[in-house]
Design brief:
Elements (H helix, E strand, L loop, with lengths): L3 H7 L4 H22 L4 H23 L9 H23 L1 H14 L7 H29 L21 H7 L5 H6 L3 H21 L5 H22 L2 H15 L2 H6 L1 H24 L4 H18 L6 H10 L5 H11 L6 H18 L5 H14 L10 H11 L10 H5 L1 H27 L4 H5 L15
């Protein structure tokens, strides 16, 4: 069907495209059938993930593992249709982020107990996040150095362009909402959190001083919170369909040759992710909570993070799991999880830029000494502020880190790494979200508001409204 209508508009010009899309619809229908059979939400998400992986690999097998899959007509066309479900799901869930963050922050502050310490919450959140991202940076530096990542590779610079790097002062100032409406429009989550904390904090102060009970304001935010929570429940209920489409699209679009060329880098990213998950588990154990129970309750959210590759897109599900299953106070959950979508991301702004520093140093022949290692950890930790939690922005973290360590001139050599970015981004994003959740548990323990009985309640593993939401 060599006609523009089919090729460019409808994007169904090959019989193979039709066959793949029919298979795609059959798999979606199977997930819908399981949902109608009242299958648990966690099982549905895992099923969607497995089916997405099978479909993605099947498309690659049919195409004969091409070096550039997007030049194959039916891969290009079918993955475009996959994006209607996968990308559409991410659009819906990101639609919720700003109203959910602002309403939830103000709501929880207005309803905080008299003895709650807002200052301690903010300082604890920042401290725990930056310490953990520094540990992630150390893990990445050690892994890259031990394996001599990049040594012996071609030093010819690619076409990659370095992102604009802002001074740390400008980055910190950007977190202050000089225009709250613009912050909401540009999805500056930290700025929205700051604005919400100020509005909620002042309103709470007015209530405490007896100036006014603010009954109408409190009632308004209580009802808004109820509505946005139900909307979030419905959208997150679509997760099994979204993860199926997202993972199928990612695996179908990436050529296996590109993966093979950067095999060591990919392996080290996932080894780093595994090590940091162990570190998070040890941190939880230090604070007297079971890491096994954490992973049992967080698995659906982590799978969504893995397939969606968006820390910000997963935010509603993250907050819901923290408050509904893991016993975290709503004030802590909303503050720490929102903070974690932009700052202190252990994967995108910790392990990844550290590996990039070692890779570029070895490719360019720049010696790595103790001074370089210490400077790298400091630069990576500070650079973790202000990295937006959406797919692909780990490149900004790499830009900041390479520039801060004096390697900015060699940024073009990172092209092979960026070629496999979607593959490594899945693991990075999962680590980001897991880091936000474990940080929230630790901060809540420090605040003294953690509900350990709810955390240990196995009945809450599947006791979630999203499991009964019909698509």
């Amino acid at each position: 069907m060599d006609i523009p209508f089919f090729q460019q508009f409808l994007m169904i010009s090959s019989p193979m495209t039709i066959g793949i899309l029919i298979l795609f619809l059959i798999l979606l229908g199977f997930v819908f059938y399981l949902q109608r059979q009242k299958t648990s939400f966690g099982t549905l998400v895992i099923t969607g993930t497995i089916l997405g992986a099978v479909l993605g690999f099947a498309v690659q097998i049919i195409a004969g593992f091409p070096n550039d899959p997007m030049k194959v007509v039916y891969i290009k066309e079918s993955t475009k249709w996959f994006s209607l479900i996968g990308g559409g799901f991410i659009d819906l869930i990101r639609m919720l982020v700003i109203p959910l963050v602002f309403i939830s922050i103000v709501h929880v502050i207005l309803n905080m107990s008299q003895g709650a310490n807002l200052k301690k919450l903010v300082s604890s959140t920042a401290a725990v996040a930056l310490i953990m991202v520094a540990i992630a940076a150390i893990v990445g530096l050690v892994l890259g150095s031990v394996t001599h990542l990049g040594a012996g590779m071609n030093a010819e610079a690619g076409a990659s362009k370095m992102r604009e790097v802002k001074p740390v002062v400008d980055t910190l100032r950007a977190l202050i909402p000089n225009n709250p409406v613009n912050a909401m429009a540009t999805t500056n989550v930290i700025a929205v959190v700051v604005f919400g904390v100020i509005v909620g904090g002042v309103a709470r102060l007015i209530k405490q001083t007896g100036t006014d009970s603010l009954a109408m304001v409190t009632k308004l935010f209580n009802e808004l919170h109820l509505v946005i929570s139900w909307v979030a429940d419905f959208v997150i209920g679509l997760m099994p369909y979204g993860v199926l489409a997202l993972l199928a699209s990612t695996l179908a679009q990436k050529g296996f040759q590109a993966i093979a060329d950067m095999g060591l880098f990919i392996i080290l990213i996932y080894v780093g992710v595994a090590i940091m998950l162990v570190v998070q588990s040890l941190l939880l154990m230090m604070f007297g909570v079971s890491p096994i129970m954490y992973f049992r309750k967080a698995k659906a959210v982590l799978l969504l993070a893995f397939t969606s590759r968006s820390s910000m897109g997963v935010l509603p599900a993250t907050v819901s799991a923290l408050t509904g299953k893991l016993g975290v106070n709503p004030a802590t959950a909303n503050t720490v999880a929102s903070f974690g979508t932009t700052a202190g991301m252990q994967g995108c702004a910790g392990v990844f830029p550290a590996l990039c520093i070692v890779y570029i140093s070895n490719v360019a022949g720049v010696p790595l000494d103790m001074t370089m290692y210490v400077m790298s950890v400091i630069v990576i930790a500070l650079g973790s502020l202000g990295i937006a939690g959406i797919p692909g922005t780990a490149t900004m973290a790499a830009s900041v880190s390479l520039s801060g360590t004096g390697l900015g001139a060699y940024f073009g050599m990172i092209s092979p790494v960026l070629a496999v970015d979607p593959i490594v981004d899945m693991g990075r994003t999962m680590l980001n979200v897991s880091g936000s959740m474990t940080n929230a548990i630790v901060v809540d323990k420090l605040m003294g508001t953690f509900d350990k009985d709810a955390y240990n309640d196995a009945a809450l593993i599947n006791n979630d409204k999203k499991e009964t939401v019909e698509a």
